[in-house]
Design goal:
The complex is a heterotrimer of chains A (about 250), B (about 500) and C (about 450).
Chain A: E1 2-11, E2 14-24, E3 29-33, H1 40-48, E4 54-55, E5 60-63, E6 66-67, H2 73-79, E7 81-84, E8 91-95, H3 96-110, H4 118-131, E9 142-143, H5 149-163, E10 167-171, H6 179-192, E11 198-203, E12 216-221, E13 224-229, H7 232-240, H8 243-252
Parallel strand pairs in A: 3-11, 3-12, 7-10, 10-11
Antiparallel strand pairs in A: 1-2, 1-4, 1-5, 5-6, 8-9, 12-13
Chain B: H1 11-23, H2 32-41, E1 58-60, H3 67-76, H4 81-95, E2 119-121, H5 135-143, E3 157-163, E4 166-170, H6 173-178, E5 182-185, H7 186-192, H8 194-200, H9 211-219, E6 224-228, E7 237-243, E8 254-259, E9 264-272, E10 279-282, E11 285-290, E12 295-302, E13 314-325, E14 330-337, E15 342-345, E16 348-351, E17 357-366, E18 371-380, E19 386-395, E20 400-409, E21 417-426, E22 432-441, E23 447-456, H10 459-467, H11 472-480, H12 485-488, H13 493-506, H14 508-511
Parallel strand pairs in B: 3-7, 6-8, 7-9, 8-11, 9-12, 10-13, 11-13, 12-14, 13-15, 13-16, 14-17, 15-18, 16-18, 17-19, 18-20, 19-21, 20-22, 21-23
Antiparallel strand pairs in B: 1-2, 3-4, 5-6
Chain C: H1 2-16, H2 26-40, H3 76-79, E1 90-95, E2 98-99, E3 114-117, H4 118-121, H5 127-133, H6 143-150, E4 156-160, E5 170-176, E6 183-185, E7 188-193, E8 198-207, E9 214-224, E10 229-237, E11 243-252, E12 257-266, E13 269-278, E14 284-293, E15 298-307, E16 313-322, E17 327-336, E18 344-353, E19 359-368, E20 374-382, H7 386-393, H8 399-415, H9 421-434
Parallel strand pairs in C: 1-5, 4-7, 5-8, 6-9, 7-9, 8-10, 9-11, 10-12, 11-13, 12-14, 13-15, 14-16, 15-17, 16-18, 17-19, 18-20
Antiparallel strand pairs in C: 1-2, 3-4
Classes of the chains: A alpha/beta (about 250), B alpha/beta (about 500), C alpha/beta (about 450).
Chain lengths: ~250, ~500, ~450
Amino acid sequence: MLEIKDLRAAVNGVEILRGLNFSANAGEVHAIMGPNGSGKSTFAHVLSGKAGYEVLPGSQVRFQGRDLLELPAEERARLGLFLAFQYPVEIPGVTNANFLQTAANEIRESRGLDKLDALDFGDFLREKMAYVNVNPVMADRFVNHGFSGGEKKRNEILQLAVLEPSLAILDETDSGLDIDALRIVSEGVNKLRSPDRTFILVTHYQRLLSYVEPDFVHVLYKGQIVKSGGKDLALELEDKGYDWIKEEVDSNG
Amino acid sequence: MRSATNDNSGNRLTQMSSKDEQIDGTPYEGSRVEQSNREVADLAGQEYKYGWSTDIESDTFARGLNEDVVRAISARKGEPEWMTEWRLQAYRAWCGMQEPTWAKVRYARPDFQAISYYSAPKQQENPKSLDEMDPKLIETFEKLGIPLNEQKRLTGVAVDAVFDSVSVATTHRDILGKKGIIFCPISEALREHPELVKKYLGSVVPRGDNFYAALNSAVFSDGSFVYIPKGVKCPMDLSTYFRINAAQTGQFERTLIVADEGAQVSYLEGCTAPKRDENQLHAAVVELVAHAGATIRYSTVQNWYAGDEEGRGGIYNFVTKRGRCEENARISWTQVETGSAITWKYPSCILKGDNAVGEFYSVALTKGCQQADTGTKMLHVGKNTRSTIIAKTISAGRGDSSYRGLVHVAPTAANARSYTQCDSLLIGSQCGAHTFPYLDVRQPSASVEHEASTSKISEEQLFYCQSRGIRPENAISMVVNGFCKEVFDHLPMEFAVEASKLLSVSLEGSVG
Amino acid sequence: MAEMLIAWPKALVREGRELPTSGVPGVVTQLRAAGVTQLDGMTAPHKGQEEFRHTNLTALAEPLFRTLARPATLAHESIASWLYPDAAWAQIVFVNGVYCPALSTRRSLPETVYAGGLAEGWTGSHAATLEAHLGSCLGARSTFTALNSALLQDGAFVHVPRNTVLSAPIHCLFISLPQETPVSVHPRNLFVVDEGSEVSILCTYAGLAGKNPVLTNLVEETVLGANTRLDYCKVVQENAIGCHLSTHEVRQERDSRQNAFFASLSGGLVRNQAYTRLAGEGTQCHVSGLYLCDGQRTVDNYLHIAHEQPHGESRIFFKGILEDDSRAVFLGKVHVFPGAQQTDSEQLNNNLLLSERARVNTKPQLEIYADDVKCTHGATVGPPAEESVFYLRSRGISESTARGMLTRGFAEETLEAIRCDEARGRLAGHILDKYQVKR
């Protein structure tokens, strides 16, 4: 469902992603790890269509049979791609419920489904909130406004549940979370795992993977995936750090 | 704490998304986020639509300032001797003063000897009617949206039109006169009502108050005088429209408004100037006196020429505005500041009587290379005095805005209350916003609150909306919209429309 | 007076050269030497310096503070009321700045974690951590920090290694024991939390009764590694003539969270000076506090938060209650560096004046050099709202009870920031006692 070939992207003329290859099938959970500055967040941003990144010629990203790189961000969202932000953005004055209803209906419409009216959506939202264990008062609060760090990340998981994407990219969702908040967010992710939904967990800390068990672990270094393996690779990284991988890559040239 | 940006209701989003659907299917060109940011950046390039000048023969003094010039201005106005002496004392005080440097503005100090201190369009002395006026003047004001003649004049607003150094016409004087209201050029008031002027002139802003006030006191050439008798509620808004036209002159107007016991008046002020490459000085003084139980609402829409993109030209706007409130009186300042290269202005209230109320509502927009250092002073002297300050600052382009406010509670001001809120909104990445609040509380029963916020319309915000399916253009207007609402709500209806139009030309016009 | 303020520290340093040097690591020797050099080049603190502008420094000009407190021991009973009864906690005790193993309990600590005396720590298995971090956060702040370095001898040292989540707090209790003359103590604390760890540290500064003042001149350095969390609560309860000066320096690495609380309950002069550097992306720093002033006391809080990197969040929320002729100073400064985009900062200082003679100087400040930020600050100073008093009375509550309730409510609101139930409970009890209805 996602096929990435030779993805190269630059910021201000500096190449950050340097020929990244990656593919994922429906239902799989992939963890992407790597040391500081390896290109993890760039990878998530380029897939979701954020401005400010120059995607270099020859790069190929196919998602659900479409050329993803051609599409503006909102169309990628409608196609089933969801990015959980590392730093969710505040929108004062707009309630979570209204924001989500607007977004959900745009997506439903693009799939030929009927729009939900406020009552139906309210029921749907309450059901999802209960499912991912989010306090119902969050519906009436302004989007991320005045939320704690943990609440913001949980709100991203709620949006994921409501928008029902086929590919969810979690950009460092675990960063800056207390152990308790991390457990709650992980539970939400685990509940939302399904055979037709793919997850890409971009993370800086191995700790997340004790709570959300990945099918595959990839190490991103200098803009390329330099090592892939099963969940044991994460444990190995926890033990030994990244230096041995850096050495391996750097000595091979 | 409270929202730092806006308070749009959720409904707005629904409206906008339906608009979004209509434009769906239009071909996608580049990143919309980038595009809208470009539009935001373009704000600085808004055209100034009052930048033309009137070609008219003027009687203009030679440049420079000395005692003879001061005497000549006084003589030209036919002023009584005490007034000439008053001006000379102000001039002598000014000679011993230093130009203040504490404001957070950078500019080339004006050469006070390179300015002409008097410029008036040549016309018949004291025209009896508009027929005797130079048609060019009537045309000028008509082009500015201020028709002066009987048929076209604005209903519900009496206007005093000031062109460079002199008042050229005042409308609706007949209706006002029936109620005993005096509304005329201050030079005329000096001749017709010298006892009133003598009593109040300099009573709120003493002639040696500060550098610019002293300069103004020495050389002011015209302005408006208002007197509302006891218990009279002014039947219409009073308005003065200031137009700088001549080159290399300064405008030094003086406004004096006296509301006697229980009187009420709403006064509006508007200003524009032609585009010129040189900087022009505007140093005004406004004095308000609200006697016991009186109410004065003073509203300004300031749109002096702001200079070009590179900061060439524009008006230096150094203004001293202050009001004194006696018992149970209220003074409310509302200002929308969008023009001038440099703004230095702190409309203030001396809350002298018990239960007096002072208010200050301000929107200041800086773009291009504009700099504004503006705010207020609320001096609580009487018991149970109250003040409210709401200041909204919008900075775009390379604009730099500072809020500077003092709340002073004297030991006599038992149970005084003051509330300050100053919010800054940044658009683009080269502008600046600063707040300098000063609280000086010397009375323990006083309650003084201060809140401030600075926020920016960010690319992150726009992308977040987009990644969930909402157009970034709409996100911008969501944030800007409502930011100024609390202030506009305090403008008189006629002015509120003009002010929001002025702001939309500057801001919302570009995000459509 | 001003001269005295620099004279006694300099005299003290000359005497302090006799500090024990055997077994002392290089970093300590260097810090002591640097402190002496800094002090030599310094003039007395004065009101022209922004950070001392509103502070009454008279109390500190006491020449006898040049006497260092002698080591002392105490019976367990005399300090028991200051300890927390929960046996699962590690509680480390210091008397006049020196670690007392006999009064401390550390049984419950995991083996990998260290909590104890700094001097003990520089010889043990955590010595490398100590050497790497001691002095790494401190700039040349003032006469008092220089003096502390010059006299560096002991203090609290806590090291929590990687991915360790401690469920029970660590309590550091510092007892000031008055002596025959005024004396000073100069504890130096170091707290190091490594990547992925979470810990709660409580510090109590308690003064025992006595005729002569003790000056505590504390310097504390805290290093929070990536993705860590620190809950910190400091309670100052010096005796009525005790002086407490402290400088707290915190460095936060990426994704770290700090939740700090400063309670200033008693002491003749209390001054908390807390500097936090948000040195990594995505950090969070919440600092709150409560100060209760009466008599002639002065409490002075100086907070400085430097947002050096993007996506930082800071909150400063301090409240004070002033009675009699007391004085409070609050200075909060948030400094946003160029490039520290998406900074989100709020600052609020509320003061309740219960006396017409009490004075407050409050100054929240912002210094912003980035453009994409959200910063707010606010301050209030005032007596209890008469409307609120009236509202309670209209429901049948007597005026004095109403005033007591409102005062307690004002103070207790700040306690919500404290995550440790026991510490919060003890502070709530103190507030209840202090603002009992006075009949």
